[in-house]
From TrEMBL:
Protein name: Rhodanese-related sulfurtransferase
Residues in Rhodanese domain copies: 23-137
Transmembrane domains' residue ranges: none
InterPro entries: Rhodanese-like_dom, Rhodanese-like_dom_sf, Thiosulfate_ST/Rhodanese-like
CDD domains: RHOD
Region span, Disordered: 60-79
Entry superkingdom: Bacteria
SUPFAM superfamilies: Rhodanese/Cell cycle control phosphatase
Length: 153
């Protein structure tokens, strides 16, 4: 039986480097958690498209990403899938994040397989918060006044 080479595992990036790239507009931060998780806490500028919606090929709907932050669909339910991510990324690198890095690893593999250059944020939002990076929290009054999360909260 012949040996079949396996593709390399998708690259990972630490949360601090991911924040720098996303804040500079050089990459799209893609949150693949569920809307309820995103509503509790999320990285500024992140686009919400739950992992389960990535298999769909729709496009950004009404109430879409606008400023690059929030949900791919009005009301924060995600959706639009691959087409939404492609449109929002606009050719930039995609940085996938979830709670701990497992779902975002799956999303990274899926997006790369469909020609969307994607890197996994190692450790997910747990590591993001542990590293003291900026986060919008629904329980803070300032969040409701300052966040532009596209109706996700």
């Amino acid at each position: 039986m012949a040996w079949t080479p396996q593709p390399p595992a998708p690259a990972q990036i630490d949360p601090t480097a991911a924040h720098r790239l996303a804040a500079a507009g050089e990459a799209l931060l893609l949150d693949v958690r569920e809307p309820e998780e995103h509503a509790g806490v999320h990285a500024p500028g992140s686009l919400l498209v739950p992992l389960g919606a990535l298999g769909t090929f729709g496009t950004l709907g009404e109430g879409g990403a606008g400023d690059g932050e929030g949900s791919a669909r009005e009301g924060g339910t995600g959706g639009g899938g691959l087409g939404a991510v492609r449109a929002a990324a606009g050719g930039r690198l995609v940085l996938a994040v979830c709670r701990s890095g497992t779902r975002s690893q799956t999303a990274t593999e899926l997006l790369n397989a469909h020609g969307v250059p994607t890197v996994n944020v190692a450790g997910g939002m747990r590591a993001w918060l542990r590293d003291g990076l900026p986060a919008h929290r629904n329980d803070l009054p300032a969040h409701r006044d300052e966040c532009h999360c596209g109706g996700a909260i």
